[in-house]
User: What shape does this take?
Amino acid sequence: MLGQICHHFGWTLDYLLWEIDWRIVQRMMIDAPVYESDDEKKDKEIDLTEQTTDDIEEMLKKYK
Assistant: This one.
């Protein structure tokens, strides 16, 4: 997802990680389109979880 944002806006990963407010990046990721097949839509429950800054830091460790 972060790579797609960088590609779309022409940003580097460093710029995205250190220069953009993370609240804005989270909104971009929430608003990104998601395509599901009919099979994936059946019997799907919504799982709402709250992300903390620690969760985001843990996700970003993959990209270092």
